[in-house]
């Protein structure tokens, strides 16, 4: 798998929300990672969990998660 630049597709207030979004993307074959997952658990509401994907998957991921730019 070729890795392009990783871009943040969305930010969530909790790791649970980020994991749910990651699962949606995984079902569509999009590999995603969660940044700051553990820090979000330690500092809820202060640090947000960031969901990142390969740049080439950005638009499809936003569409699947029903996010608007």
Could you describe the 3D structure shown?
This protein has helices at 15-27, 37-42, 58-64; strands at residues 6-12, 32-35, 49-54. The model has no long low-confidence stretch (mean pLDDT 89). A three-stranded antiparallel beta sheet has the order 1-3-2. The protein has 69 residues and is α+β, with helices and mostly antiparallel strands. The N and C termini lie far apart (27 Å).
Give a concise summary.
38% of the residues lie in helices and 25% in strands.
Helix content: 25-40%
What distance lies between the first and last C-alpha atoms, to the nearest angstrom? 27 Å
Q: Strand sequence of the main sheet, in spatial order?
A: 1-3-2
Mean pLDDT: 89
Number of strands: 3
User: Which range does the strand content fall in?
Assistant: 15-25%
Number of helices: 3
Rg, alpha carbons: 12 Å
Shape: globular
User: How do the SSEs run, as a string of H and E?
Assistant: EHEHEH
Structural class: alpha+beta
The major sheet is characterized as: 3 strands, antiparallel
The low-confidence runs, each spanning 5 or more residues with pLDDT under 50, are none
Layout: helices, strands, pairs:
Layout: E1 6-12, H1 15-27, E2 32-35, H2 37-42, E3 49-54, H3 58-64
Descriptive tags:
single chain, 69 residues, alpha+beta, globular
